[in-house]
Every structure is written in C-alpha cells, then in structure tokens.
Design brief:
Blueprint lengths: L1 H12 L2 H5 L2 H30 L4 H21 L3 H21 L6 E4 L2 E7 L2 E4 H26 L4 H19 L3 H17 L4 H20 L1 H11 L10 H13 L24 H37 L3 H25 L17 H26 L3 H28 L1
Antiparallel strand pairs: 1-2, 2-3
Length: about 425
C-alpha cells in the first residue's frame, strides 16, 4: 500500500515534460554541443579560410547538421522503442547494402584514400556512423530473443549468429578502410554480449580471439608503419608520427588553464585534422587541464545517465530498451576513450571523431539520434513504472474518443449509402 501511494505521488508530482525527459542527460548533452560548436569553430578557422575563403564554413555546416539532427531527434523521440525492436533486424540488411555501395566508385566518395562516404550533393553521408547505431539495435533485439540460450546453452550456435553479423560488418568497414569504427563496434558488441549473459570463459575466448585477429590487421600496410611510429613517436616526428607529436605539443602547451579560446598555435596548419580527429588536442591547448577535466566530466555524466536509464528499463522489464541504452552508453564511452587515447599517444592514430565536438555531420546527426533514443527509453520506462501523467492520460483519452467518433461517423455513412 505504501509503495502504491509512493508511485502515485511520483507520477503526479513532476510536470509532464520533467517526467519524460532525463534532465541530467539533457544538460550534459546540451553543454557538450555548446562546447563542441565553440571548440570546432576555433579549430577550423585557419583551414576554412585557406580552403574556402570563409572562416565560418565548417561552423555553418556543423550548425546545419545540428539543426537537422534536433528535428530528426524529435520525431525519433515520439516513436516507441518497441517499433525499433521490430525494425532492428530489418534495418541491418539496408546498412549492409550501404556499406557495400560506399565501396563502389560511382556511389562512394573518396577522401584521403578512404571510401567512407556516400555523395549526396552538397553533403556526404558516412555510413559507418549509421552502422554503429543499427548494429546496437540489432544486438539488443537478438539478446532479447536469444539471451537465455546465449547464457545457458552448451552449444555455440546462439553465439555464432551475432559474431557472424559483427564479422561481416567489420570486414566491410575494413575495406573502406575504417579501422577505428571496427574497434568501437567490436568492443561495443562484446560488451553487449557480456551483458546478455555470455559466460566468462567464452567471453575471454572471444576477447583474446578478437585481439588475435586485430593484431595482424593493425600491422598490415600503412597501419603497421603507424604502430611503429606510435611506439617511438619522437624518432618519427617528421613522418608517420607527425600528427601524434604535434598533438602532444598542443596538449603540453595548454598547461593548467590553457592559452585561451582561439589562441591555439598547433591548429595553424601544424596539426592535421585539427577540427576533426585531433580536436581534443586543440581543446587541451586552448582550455588547459581544467578544460580537459570539465570535458571528461561531461562525457562521464552522459555515459552514467545512459547506464542509469538502461538499469531502470531493465527493472521495468523493458529488456530491449535496456540493452539499447547500455549499447549507446558503451558506444559513446568507447569512442571518447579511443579518441582521447589517440590524442594522448596512448593508442595508434585512428580516424575517430569526438562525439558532439569534432566536425562531422554524419557523426553529429547519428549521435543526436542516439540521444533521442535514450530519452525515449527513459520515457517508456517512466510510463511502465508509474503510468501516464494526468495530462498525458487525458490527451490519450481525447485521442481515443476522436478516433471512435470518426469510426462511428464512417460506419453510419456507409450504412446510409447502403
């Protein structure tokens, strides 16, 4: 009885929008997007003026994608997670076809030797960013359907199917090539399989197997030269470790409080991809150690909210929604760690954006959609635990009444015609 009274109190205490919006997640994402626009603008001024004669070129494009992302996110938020549960397996073949299409010269767009984009006129779509989110949806749905078999079956068959799908996706990404996305996708997939109940012995086998496969891939071609340079960057400062060395210089020059916004030296054509793959180094140079800690706190807050939302969905028996939230949390967390690790010379260079901060329309758009899905998971969880608020219940009642009235009017019209 006390529990029911508490739930009724919670359901009526907060205004409707506060019940259905996770304010911690909203605040962390808003601050990251604001920080991203400021830092990206600062990091891109020099290259934008040189290449396009407009210092606001990259800023304007990023702002356009931000606005598009917010509009799309609103409509995604209005769709129940049960819809995405049904669509996960159906969207996977579409993404696979796009990953194949991006390799075709007629459709795919080549940038710096990589075929990662589909040309859409004034804009380009990076398919690998879509693949991350769709793969999480697929894995979440698979774990709901086969989680018990995965956890308790002595057969390897339940494990083979998701690994096969993950392997095919990774292979297509390697052909682009996009090794950074392969690492993030594989790490997220293994983490979800563990949450789905995969035994520790099989998880260890899978983990070391993934490492065994990735080591020769890492050492092939230009990536092998990057690893060699990564192990001793200062000996290759003018070659393969050029980016790493200048990133370290930028971070070191930042000191405690930074050189100030717009005062980065390394972004002035010393540090390649300063507004994209190495934007964290520019952030560190201009805002210093304090700026680094604030940024890390915002990302940690975002990931923590994703896991809390997932935990609450799990408690409400919304299994797909829970896995979806966990997967998004793992994905963003891993990508942030790998991006920062590359900038700090803790990992070999890989082409990974820093979510919400790096320049990249596809990355920003897909990440905003992922946040909308997290918000929807929170909304569905609130409804499952506490029911609809009085305002929402009245809206639903009015909607049902209008539908019934329309149906009655149509039926009466049909009877009159007869």
């Amino acid at each position: 009885m006390v529990k029911n009274m508490f739930e009724n109190y919670c359901s009526n205490f907060q205004p409707s929008w506060q019940r259905y919006i996770d304010r911690g997640l909203l605040l962390s994402v808003t601050l990251l997007m604001g920080l991203g626009l400021v830092i990206m603008m600062s990091a891109s001024i020099a290259v934008a003026e040189k290449n396009f004669g407009n210092i606001y070129f990259f800023f304007n494009r990023q702002l356009v994608f931000l606005c598009i992302g917010l509009v799309v996110a609103y409509f995604v938020y209005r769709i129940k997670t049960s819809f995405w549960q049904r669509m996960g397996a159906k969207l996977l073949p579409v993404v696979m076809l796009l990953l194949v299409a991006v390799l075709l010269p007629v459709i795919g767009k080549e940038v710096n030797g990589s075929h990662r984009w589909i040309n859409l006129g004034p804009f380009s779509l990076q398919v690998s960013e879509m693949a991350k989110l769709i793969m999480i949806m697929y894995m979440a749905g698979y774990l709901v359907r086969h989680g018990k078999e995965l956890a308790h079956s002595s057969s390897y068959k339940p494990l083979f199917i998701p690994l096969f799908v993950l392997g095919v996706t990774d292979a297509l990404l390697m052909l682009e090539p996009d090794f950074g996305s392969v690492v993030v996708l594989t790490a997220t997939g293994i983490a979800l399989l563990y949450l789905g109940g995969l035994k520790l012995t099989r998880l260890a086998f899978l983990f070391f197997g993934a490492i065994a496969v990735m080591i020769p891939l890492v050492m092939m071609g230009y990536r092998g030269a990057r690893v060699t340079a990564f192990l001793d960057p200062w000996s290759h400062a003018s070659g393969k470790a050029y980016q790493t060395v200048h990133a370290l210089m930028a971070i070191g020059d930042g000191g405690w409080f930074g050189a100030g916004l717009g005062a980065s030296v390394q972004k002035l054509f010393y540090l390649p991809e300063a507004h994209n793959d190495f934007i964290f180094a520019v952030l560190a140079e201009e805002t210093g150690f304090i700026g680094i800690m604030v940024t890390l706190f915002l990302y940690a807050w975002l990931v923590q909210r994703a896991f809390v939302i997932g935990f609450r969905a799990d408690r409400a028996k919304l299994n797909f929604a829970a896995y979806l939230a966990y997967g998004i949390g793992f994905w963003i967390g891993f990508q942030v760690l790998f991006h920062i690790g590359v900038n700090l010379a803790l990992l070999p260079p890989k082409g990974l954006t820093l979510p919400f901060i790096s320049y990249g329309g596809s990355s920003l758009l897909v990440t905003i959609i992922a946040i909308a899905l997290l918000m929807r998971v929170h909304r569905d969880t609130q409804i499952a635990l506490f029911g609809l608020s009085d305002k929402e219940a009245q809206k639903l009642k009015n909607k049902m009444f209008k539908k019934a009235a329309t149906r009655k009017k149509v039926n009466s019209g049909a009877s009159y015609a007869r």
